[in-house]
Amino acid sequence: MRAWRVDRPGPPEIREFGLRTEGVPHPAPGELLVRVRACGVCRTDLHVVEGDLPVHRPGVVPGHEVVGEVAGTGGGGFAAGDRVGIAWLRGTCGVCRYCRRGAENLCPASTYTGWDADGGYAEFATVPAAFAHRLPAGYSDTELAPLLCAGIIGYRALCLSELPTRLPPSPSTDALRATDRFRGGRLGIYGFGASAHLAAQVAIAQGATVHVMTRDAEARELALELGAASASGAAEPPPEPLDSAILFAPAGELVPPALAALDRGGTLAVAGIHLTDIPSLNYQEHLFFERRLRSVTANTRQDARDFLAFAAEHPLRVVTTPYRLEDAARALADLAGDRVHGAAVLVSG
To answer: Residue limits of the Alcohol dehydrogenase-like N-terminal domain (predicted)?
Structure first.
């Protein structure tokens, strides 16, 4: 099979990242062998290739938004020929205090596709059956790929942003239907790429007013097409105070203006795994009146199930730019240069 490996991460002039031919991997007990049909190109892959993240597996194959067909099964209720998804979260211990309380994304022993184990920039990949995902109908392989990280992480970020609802008070937030969770709030989105354009649609579908701040003019046009109430420059103030905001751009300099745009009691959720340094904050201007700043760390399998169930019931417009598998390096370069419209996806075949 063909597979891309990161033998030496770093900037373009020193990195060793190439396509090679090698044997098909052998699934371990309890794993599935998956023939890759499509793999999304995520900014996290760029961080792995450029060395922003520490090396966990030397020579790793990146890619964690994998859609494929089961070619060999080790159990888990999947059969050969089933369409299956491989996402970022690949394994957890299942016994630590975080796993036991439903926060497996915080498990100290967690492992990740395309970082700790080989991912989907290849013609075949493996995945533990317990961490494989069943996929909703009505989407092509190319459309499904970005849902498996961009979609899931955006959904979790939306949940953690604590966007207010117009629903009557309930004794338990668990009693709220997931499809009504975000109704009524004013949401700001900073950066508008693969994850943001999906999260915006979820929020808009539930009645939220969405304001987008991004430096890319084409992305601003897409935001308005998808129903955003406004779209402006990355650091420009939105037209009204925000109840919640999500920072998708890996730019720490946007944290102060995003916090300043929050109304009293608002929350800013930072969705990326990597962020440049945050400038000094002024307590009175940025944090007073109970404004909150929080990070988003990976996702749980329940997040994935909830989001994919939502996508099955509420068709999302997934904007993609396809690339051939052999053009993975160009796809990453285009992502780094903000030249990708929507989500970049590698297509096998």
So the answer is: 29-136
* 134 plus 9 within the same structural domain: yes
The token pair that represents 347 in the structure block: 């297509």
Residue 293 identity (one-letter amino acid)? L
Q: In angstroms, rounded to a whole number, what is the distance separating the alpha carbons of residues 60 and 183?
A: 41
- Give the global pTM: 0.91
pLDDT, tens only, 109-150: 999 999 999 999 999 999 999 999 999 999 999 999 999 999
Is 42 part of a structural domain of the chain?
A: yes
- State the residue range of the domain holding 240: 154-295
CA 135, CA 138: separation in Å to the nearest integer? 10
d(CA 182, CA 162): 8
Q: Residue with structure tokens 């109840």?
A: 243
Would 306 be classed as within a structural domain?
A: no
- H-type alpha helices, the chain: 43-50, 97-100, 141-146, 152-160, 194-205, 217-225, 255-260, 301-313, 328-336
Contact of 167 with 179, CB cutoff 8 Å: no
Q: Nearest 5°: CA angle at 159, between 155 and 161? A: 115
Contact (Cβ atoms closer than 8 angstroms) between residue 74 and residue 27: yes
Structural domains counted in the chain: 2
CB 107 within 8 A of CB 98: yes
Residues 198, 267: one domain? yes
Q: Please write the tens of the pLDDT for every residue from 186-239.
A: 999 999 999 999 999 999 999 999 999 999 999 999 999 999 999 999 999 999
Task: Encode burial over 210-243: b for 16+ CB neighbours within 10 A, e otherwise.
Answer: bbbbbbbeebbebbeebebbbbbebbebbeeebb
Kindly state the tokens that stand for 76. Answer: 């888990």
User: What is the helix, strand, coil percentage profile of the chain, to 5?
Assistant: 30, 30, 45
Residue 301 lies in a domain: no
Say yes or no: 128 and 35 in one domain: yes
Segment 21-49 shows an average pLDDT of: 96
